[in-house]
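Changelog-adjacent note: as of this version, every example in the card shows the full chain rather than a window. The one below runs 92 residues end to end.
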Amino acid sequence: MSGDPGAPRRSLRLEVPIDDEADRQALRSALLAARASELSEIQRRAARHTFGYGSDTARETMTDEVADRRRRWEMLDRLLAALDEAPTAENA
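Full-length structure tokens:
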């Protein structure tokens, strides 16, 4: 899910200072919690849309909000994958 399907994909490089493996696990846990929260919000908004809550205009807004939440969820998923692939002190 990207903003412009024809646009080339770019990479964003981040450097996050951590003191030890416990920091890395804490970061991973925080990202997982945020991802779970986004998924819950996607499901809640999609259900409200499916069940026909609100006016036509409100449902259009819900559709946009679901798409935005899906993008956020996907970005968190990519961050988790990058964190899992990042070198550790053991394999640097």
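Structural remarks: The chain is about 65% helix and 0% strand.
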